[in-house]
Amino acid sequence: MSTKPYKGFEPKWIKEAAPAKSYRSIFRWGDPHFVKYPKESLYKMMKSTFNMTDDDFRQYDGDIGWDEVDLSAYPSKLSEQHLNGLRAIVGTSYVSTKDYDRLAVAYGKTAYDLMRIRERKFDSLPDAVVFPSTSEEVEQIVAYCTKNNIPLYVYGGGSSVTRGVEPVKGGVSLDMRKRFNKILSFNETDQTITVQAGLSGPDLENALNNAVTVFGAKRAYTCGHFPQSFEYSSVGGWVVTRGAGQNSTYYGTIADIVLSQKYATPIGCVQTPHYPREATGPDLNQIMMGSEGTFGVLTEVTLKVRRYMPENRKRFSYIFKDWETAMDAAREMMQCECGYSSVFRLSDPEETNLMLRLYNVDETPLHPMLDKLGYKDMERCLFLGFTDGEKEFSANIAKNIARIAKEHGAMSLTSFVCKAWEKGRFNDPYLRDSMMDFGVCTDTLECTVTWSNMAQVHKDVRAVCHALPNTIVTTHMSHCYPQGANLYFIFITRMNDSAEFKRYHSTILDAIQKSGAAVSHHHGIGKMFAPWLEGYIGKTEYGVFRVLKDYFDPNYNMNPGGTIGLDLPEDEKRFLLDK
Amino acid sequence: MSTKPYKGFEPKWIKEAAPAKSYRSIFRWGDPHFVKYPKESLYKMMKSTFNMTDDDFRQYDGDIGWDEVDLSAYPSKLSEQHLNGLRAIVGTSYVSTKDYDRLAVAYGKTAYDLMRIRERKFDSLPDAVVFPSTSEEVEQIVAYCTKNNIPLYVYGGGSSVTRGVEPVKGGVSLDMRKRFNKILSFNETDQTITVQAGLSGPDLENALNNAVTVFGAKRAYTCGHFPQSFEYSSVGGWVVTRGAGQNSTYYGTIADIVLSQKYATPIGCVQTPHYPREATGPDLNQIMMGSEGTFGVLTEVTLKVRRYMPENRKRFSYIFKDWETAMDAAREMMQCECGYSSVFRLSDPEETNLMLRLYNVDETPLHPMLDKLGYKDMERCLFLGFTDGEKEFSANIAKNIARIAKEHGAMSLTSFVCKAWEKGRFNDPYLRDSMMDFGVCTDTLECTVTWSNMAQVHKDVRAVCHALPNTIVTTHMSHCYPQGANLYFIFITRMNDSAEFKRYHSTILDAIQKSGAAVSHHHGIGKMFAPWLEGYIGKTEYGVFRVLKDYFDPNYNMNPGGTIGLDLPEDEKRFLLDK
Asked: Among the four A11, A52, A426, B384, which has the fewest Cβ within 10 Å?
């Protein structure tokens, strides 16, 4: 993250691009030429926190994935007849059984995935990768796989942290990145855009920001959806998992942004209604969203778009004296009826400690002042964000936030810290790869809480995370609502074994379920969180998901293997609540 | 509506309360002592428009329902054994087979219902009426009816205009008004309230407005949900039909206001999640809402509440030169990202003509001026509303609305017209009863449109309505969104026969379906709109509703008889779109 040379010992951070066709080129985050590693002060902090020495950073801990992918031990099990069947649909060039193509869509981006590739543990591989181009092709592939009982998976942006894309039963994986990424129509009157599900976040956003030239529109637009995975995520992935972007406090989660969806299901094409609200029975849009590929393949999405007016943005950052007061202030900001800030992010004391280092505040004269002014390290809480919308609307929210922050004893840190956060907002995953080369693991978990149970959930989950020695657990509140918020936990610890990671992850999820929080606010369920879902939803309630599955995909060929718990063995389910 | 004496002939408007136990006390709207009838200028307009003379108003057209209800020709068919079974659950006093109690819950409030009672046509009657008091009692009643195959209906506020409450298969109807109307808890931290489904709109709102004394809260709150039926509607009715209030442009429809729901279903109690957003599979809250009693009986609802700050309200009204320009202005107001006005109502030229009379603008010096200034009768469009929220937020929306109105050539009519509208907003149904006594029928239909197809739907539906001679069809846009709005059609015509009404109503619904609009924005589907639902949703898509029904209520005892089309004969369904 810093290009400043270290004064003392500097680990051999991997700064060069991974070789083409290598394992590393698959498991590392994003842009092959972008590198991020800890600056010296953070490196020192890591060593002391994790009880490590320079010696631990003299050699890589485990395989760094420099070799070319070789799956000769795992040949494709799909028959030539079926490969020909698929080729007949999309063309010969767009069906692949190559090793690299198969591994490239096998895993998402939870640390469990990265560790397994580093360990060369291939629990799941597709037998063939297909690159469709049109909704009609996808419909034919779904029909073909259904008829021939072939498991079908979808790989959109590949940033799943829930094992959502993992083809645990083999079969076919649709790689949407290459050809299923077109904008189909733009309607400026209704402020909507219709796209293929494989379109990437940046491609969507660039087209909207440049709508005047791209579509001949009157002005620029934005989708307002910016998950941390933005640069390597797809519209389809956002929708089927019910994702949320970092600006969701104003723009809403994707569940608010979607107007209509089209799916290729085993029983045919499904098109949801396209009106903002209606009273025509259960809401089909909200039934299909969250199905995570288990009802069929999402092909097309119509999204609401908003006017893009970054010139009206007001950035802010404040420091509060303690977590309790800061939570109260955040709640007041969300309930005072002045509209919502776009980014709205409050860090707990442990995260504040880390962020002030990450964003270089520790190198400014501000840092020593904070303690003197009563904003004490490991008590103080950093709050940052920015507003969007029409000029006066945006300014008035910032004004109310300033008023409420002041009333709660906070001090303004100007827009400096927010700008620093913006610079790093999409590239923290690169830092993770650098640390993992030396056996330091970082990953995240998140849940929804009400204002009433926020303090308790925060306390309970942190206690469980800290039960592992030498662990940093940082928490922030983001994606806020008048009734509650998302609590986002980031844990950093010395760990380099996928089985150990899975146990640790599972212990934290137990704690989240026991605390009564919603088991996911925006990451979705996938296969990794599936054991907790029925226990959270309730047995009678969960049965709804099962009858929907039986309706759309009675033979269980769509994203099979436990996704959202549908074909999960009973003994793997975790019922921890008295429900 | 006016207490001014007529100068010429005045019809014998019924001004006294209907006798206790009379038919009229059931079919007329609301407060027995409140009366509303047309002022003289409107009476004259009615005569000329409907081609009527004073002679048509010298005697009542048909029965005015003064007699005591007598159902001796329709005895209860429920066995004493079952009556005892129900008495064992709720107590002997709370199971009734009395004529009045049975008719009181048989019909809702569409003109079709009122006409049928005036005609003494009792297509549907419950065999017994039960008055439950707790969720546990409702759960036991659902279990009893399921076990014994007894149809079960629910009567909340009784303002359904879709035959939603009508017990077409007889059996039991739960009258929720008397005892199932309690507030269960209030959470000021989360700004939520949990209530029994039978609570009335005014009881909810009064408690919230007086939260300081009622709950010992820090401030006053509002639910923000004010349908025209507000005074005689129930929370449960709002939720199961997906209702919307007149302030929904700011507060959202009930689908936005509900946080959590509890149902008594044939397969057991169902409790939906209670977080503002989550990524835990299909959204159970949005699956249960819109089920209209067909999956089970809604027992408890947790609603989001907002701060009540009427002192910040900014009222406005404007007159535009024509419908096209006014629609453009409304769209700009909804898309400019400054937040949304609470009431936001734009009338088309025909409605504007009527409203200026209804709100007495025709008696002010303003009226003759409008034409002179180029705002011509039957071209000009009235736009009115008010803003809510934090002081500056509210003021800024009003400021933006003023700016956009001016840019589109509108003239301000100050807050006068909005205030006049507010006075009448909940009591127009009384006017309907007075007119119906003389064979003039008024009723409404509504649908959702996008901005793109709004003009076309408006034109198509009006053309069909006007095909009936001597008809007034007024339209307004309300419940607005950046992507579209609700179009609300009110037709007034000389008609006093339920069969004729049904044919006319059906013809208009055909036109709505053919135009591609959503068949309901907030009235729901019930039994009356059911024939159009599958054609609107699509066959594969509609199948979702059927599998949900099969899951919750496999024996079809919950609100049976075609509600949301579930047990509607195939040959009654109308498929008019190429879907």
From this structure: A52
